[in-house]
């Protein structure tokens, strides 16, 4: 087994190579479809049909955006968390989907990336909906870990034999410190997820927006000390800003 680290549009892409098959540890963004396919054919000198499974850790644009397109081209199966309801369901879900796309474009601009089409289906058609402890179909050396908090359905992908865990957006690194991501919808679940990953004692922790990091007790405590105690979401931030503007108008009067 070999894990290839590929620079994506706004995140790292992790492609796991075996002699007879390939596993994509997350669904990447729509802008990454060509990058992934070219890596398989040009760098690995393999058929795109060797891609057998695509894990979608959660529904944000840089983690689910390429999944459907890659499935259509390669025939790969999509794996996600087992949830009855779509993350972007209803009117609120549509607005949140658009907001997340805007945030993804904003991140791309900050990274100096050209503007690309990131639009993707807000409803995921997964072939397998897995729960905590389930092994990934065709890749039984990898298992699914429920690690919610960032959203209600975040999963990590763990290989106990190799002591590697890909945690997606469970944590991000800013100024040499690991911190909680934005948004955090479920603070208590988030803290439990951080503890859960820490207790694995994995030798390699792979992040979506960084790469491998050291996740020792000091790093864990920093995350827990600085993580929000209340939900920090798009709508809460917007409401706080609107209240500030309203107060400023009243004060001016």
From TrEMBL:
Q: Show where the Metallo-beta-lactamase domain sits.
A: 10-209
InterPro entries attached here? Metallo-B-lactamas, NDM-1-like, RibonucZ/Hydroxyglut_hydro
> Which Gene3D superfamilies does the record match to this protein?
Ribonuclease Z/Hydroxyacylglutathione hydrolase-like (3.60.15.10)
Q: What is the lineage of its organism?
A: Bacteria, Pseudomonadati, Pseudomonadota, Gammaproteobacteria, Vibrionales
SUPFAM superfamilies with a match to the protein in the record: Metallo-hydrolase/oxidoreductase (SSF56281)
| Originating organism | Vibrio barjaei
Protein name in the entry: MBL fold metallo-hydrolase
Taxonomy, superkingdom: Bacteria
């Amino acid at each position: 087994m070999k894990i290839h680290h590929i620079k994506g549009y706004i995140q790292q892409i992790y492609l796991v190579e075996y002699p007879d098959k390939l596993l994509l540890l997350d669904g990447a963004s729509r802008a990454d479809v060509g990058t992934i396919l070219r890596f398989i054919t040009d760098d690995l000198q393999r058929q795109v049909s060797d891609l057998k499974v695509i894990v979608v850790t959660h529904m944000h644009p840089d983690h689910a955006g390429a999944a459907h397109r890659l499935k259509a081209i390669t025939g790969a199966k999509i794996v996600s968390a087992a949830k009855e309801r779509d993350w972007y369901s209803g009117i609120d879900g549509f607005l949140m989907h658009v907001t997340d796309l805007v945030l993804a474009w904003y991140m791309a601009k900050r990274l100096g990336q050209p503007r690309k089409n990131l639009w993707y289906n807000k409803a995921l058609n997964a072939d397998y909906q897995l729960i905590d402890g389930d092994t990934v179909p065709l890749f039984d050396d990898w298992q699914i870990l429920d690690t919610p908090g960032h959203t209600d359905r975040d999963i990590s992908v763990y290989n106990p034999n190799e002591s590697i865990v890909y945690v997606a957006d469970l944590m991000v690194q800013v100024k040499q410190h690991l911190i909680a991501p934005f948004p955090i919808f479920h603070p208590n679940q988030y803290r439990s997820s951080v503890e859960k990953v820490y207790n694995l004692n994995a030798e390699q922790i792979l992040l979506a927006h960084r790469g491998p990091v050291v996740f020792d007790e000091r790093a864990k405590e920093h995350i827990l000390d600085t993580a929000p105690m209340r939900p920090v979401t798009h709508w809460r931030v917007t409401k706080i800003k609107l209240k500030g503007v309203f107060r400023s108008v009243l004060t001016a009067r």
